[in-house]
Amino acid sequence: MYDLIILGGGPAGYNAAERAAHAGMKTLLFEGRALGGVCLNEGCIPTKTLLHSAKIYDYAKHSEEYGVKFSGAAINHEAVVSRKDRVVNMLVSGVASRLKKAGVDVVAEYATIVGRSKEGFTLKAGEEEYTGKKLLICTGSTAFVPPIQGLRDAMATGFAMTNREILDLRMVPERLVVIGGGVIGLEVASYFCSVGSKVTVIEMLDHIAGATDREISQILQKNYIKKGVTFLLSAKVTKLGEGSVTYEAGDKTETIPADAVLVSVGRRPATEGIGLENIGVLTERGAIVTDEYCRTSVSGVYAAGDVNGKSMLAHTAYREGEVAVNNMLGKRDIVNYGAIPAVIYTNPEVATVGETEESAKAKGFDVKSVTVTLKYSGRYVSENESGDGILKLVVDSGHRRVLGVHMIGSYASEIIYGAAMMVDLEMRVEQIKQLVFPHPTVGEVIREAMFMV
Ligand code: NAI
User: Fold this and answer.
1) Which of 31, 95, 111, 152 is the most exposed place for a label (fewest CB within 10 A)?
2) Residues 354, 424 share a domain
3) How many CB atoms lie within 10 A of CB 360?
């Protein structure tokens, strides 16, 4: 009998397991694929490893701009992928040893929920049955495969891929078509365009990067057009043929050649086949319904991570796992969904937190916002003379509270947590003006913006 059984060993599950075990709960974690989940194995970490190699290669190609003469730069994609595998293995075994150290029992199998009794919840994996007083579901999400004609066949032959397969591709496709200009599409496009593919991004909306501030998504698009990426916006893919992709844009139908296709049109919570119906856990459009305490509709059952479909980000999953465990332990804890940072690891990076000017206005805030060029930062200019990075600060003009910060430019991914603190702690402009930021850093622009709003 366990105090807690966790389904799924991604960021939500492994973090929750460690926290629960440290708090004294006898914890069992099921993971049928690989510890670390999508994040470590086929998402956040592998893409960042690839993108780092691409960045080094880009620097090498443009080294003369920095006064460094360097010739013979070449990419060895196979070596890049092998390095990615080493990094992933290192981190996955790190998770395994952390769980072991914490005393978590890990079963390398998929389990299903078979029912509940007075003692708790019963799960089955293979022939074995396991019982836990509490249950935490962290089964994550899977890539959505839309009903596009020819797509299933193209996936079977390997012509079309999701994030899972493309990160293991051993060659650089000459022409890569990316369906979906969201986060995955842009990060993958970024890598392959740096290493020599002719990349075309086909996006249904009239802009890339989803809900990102529109001015920032335009700057991002401009940067990638300069690097040679083609964007077909307001365009919908209708068919995949042998070596071709057909799309509709307005009343035009076009077919373009491709050597490989990435399908990145969103992800769906993984709730099928885990036996949720056997205990009556409520789902809505395939996602487990949870409240801010990460409780589901069934007492004693919690859910964290992509499976609730709220904010499909590894760091949200981490936090939700902790929140679930704290609430199980009787420590009231909630997730502040309004202060979750989001990053797109393109080059330049995009990082945002909180409300955009548009979303704040829609919520009825009296908004004041300011846009500042990152050229206010000496460090930014010293590293990006021709950079076009900006920072946008959105404040509530009544209380002068920081509602949102949106950035495009170097180090944005590392700076944004400071802004997330400002949003989470509901800090006011005048308080931030009193803080001292290190100089010279790109982050100083946040402080500078406080004097302009
Ligand atoms: P997404 O939702 O970010 O973007 C999908 C895009 O595909 C949308 O812009 C949509 O309009 C477009 N689309 C949908 N159907 C289409 C069609 N038939 N033809 C053309 N375009 C179409 O989804 P994505 O990029 O697959 O990412 C999935 C999840 O993974 C997201 O929730 C994201 O937050 C997360 N993620 C986060 C990362 C990060 O934090 N850096 C990195 C990668 C993924």
Assistant:
1) 152
2) yes
3) 20
